[in-house]
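Appendix C reproduces, verbatim, an entry submitted by the partner laboratory led by Prof. M.T., so that reviewers can inspect both the input and the predicted structure.
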Amino acid sequence: MWFAMRGYIVFLTVIAVATASQLTFENLDVEELLKNEHKKQAVFACLLDQAPCGDMQSLKDDISDLIKTKCSQCSPNLKRKYDNTRQILLEKYPDTMNALMLKYSSKN
């Protein structure tokens, strides 16, 4: 019985750690990401289906939904973050932002 309970606790801990490590739009630090060339390229490649996403799959799912809905169901804080991120990407990475908009727009 003790081993079963102990195994269950270890399992829950592993699930909690794995879930916490998932990159989502909400926990994304956009400025830090854009400063790190390797991470930036990995995220862009994931979002544009040019590389596997791994722990960035949640971010890809978030971005897809946010672009399709233009963040219309977002909280005010998340909407500001979305608008700010969109503006930064349009200014600094217009080709990437346009590719994301084309890929995830509601027209597709």
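The CA atoms of residues 5 and 11 lie 10 Å apart. Additional entries are available on request from the coordinating office.
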